Amino acid sequence: MDLFGHLSAYDFGEVHFKHDKASGLKAIVAVHDSRLGPALGGCRFLPYDSDEDAIIDALRLARGMTYKAALARLPHGGGKSVLIRPKQHFDRVAMFRAFGNFIEDLRGHYITAEDSGTSLEDMEVIRTVTKHVTGVGPAHGGSGDPSPFTALGVRRGIEASVKYRMKRDSLDGIHVAVQGVGHVGYHLCKELHAQGAKISVADIDPLKAERAQREFGAVIVPLEQIFEIECDVIAPCALGSALNDTSIPRIKARIVAGAANNQLAQPRHGDDLHARGILYAPDYAINAGGLCNVAQEVIGYDAEKARDKTMKIFDRRFEISDRSEKTGTPTYRVADQLVEEKLAKISKSGVRAAAAQS
Question: What is the pLDDT of residues 45-60, one digit of tens each?
Answer without folding.
Answer: 999 999 999 999 999 9
